[in-house]
Design a protein that fits this description.
The protein is mainly α and 146 residues long. The protein has one domain. 77% of the residues lie in helices and 0% in strands. It has 4 helices and no strands. α1 packs antiparallel against α4. The chain is elongated, with a radius of gyration of 19 Å. InterPro entries: DUF6220.
C-alpha cells in the first residue's frame, strides 16, 4: 500500500510540473528583451518533468499497477521525448535560425504546445487511475501448502 501512495504522490508532482511548464513557457514568450535565458525555467523544468515521468513509470511497476496503467504512465515519458523532437525537427526541417523563423518551422513547433496539452491530459488520467489503484486492497498472497 505504501508504494501505491508513493506512486500517487510522484504522479501528482508530475502533473504539477506539467502545469508549471505552461507558466514557464509564458514567462519565456513574454520576456523582454528575449535572451537565450528567456526559456531557461521552461527547459529546466522539462528535464525535471522527464525525470519524474521515468520515476513515475518505475513507481507504477513497483506499486504493481495494472499493465495498462504502467503503459499510460510510460506514455508521459514518450510524449516528453516527442516534445524535444518537435522543436529539433521544427528548426531543422523548417529552416529556422536564431534570428528568423519560417512558416514551416512555426507550423511544426506549434505542435509543441498541442503535445504539451496531450501530456497534461495523459498525466491527469494517470493520476486518476493511480488514485483508484491506491484504494484497491492488494491481492492476498497465496498461503504455503501444508
Amino acid at each position: 500500500m505504501m508504494m501505491r501512495r508513493i506512486y500517487v504522490a510522484i504522479v501528482g508532482l508530475l502533473l504539477a510540473s506539467g502545469a508549471l511548464q505552461f507558466y514557464f513557457a509564458a514567462i519565456g514568450a513574454f520576456s523582454r528583451p528575449q535572451t537565450d535565458d528567456s526559456f531557461a525555467l521552461h527547459v529546466m523544468n522539462g528535464r525535471i518533468f522527464a525525470l519524474l515521468a521515468l520515476v513515475a513509470t518505475l513507481a507504477a511497476a513497483l506499486a504493481r499497477a495494472p499493465g495498462r496503467l504502467i503503459g499510460l504512465t510510460a506514455l508521459t515519458l514518450g510524449l516528453t521525448i516527442v516534445q524535444t523532437l518537435i522543436v529539433v525537427l521544427g528548426n531543422v526541417i523548417g529552416g529556422s535560425t536564431e534570428q528568423q523563423t519560417t512558416g514551416v518551422s512555426l507550423a511544426i513547433i506549434g505542435l509543441h504546445a498541442l503535445n504539451g496539452l496531450a501530456i497534461l491530459g495523459v498525466a491527469s488520467r494517470v493520476l486518476m487511475r493511480a488514485r483508484a489503484h491506491a484504494t484497491i486492497a492488494p491481492a492476498a498472497t497465496a498461503e504455503p501448502a501444508r
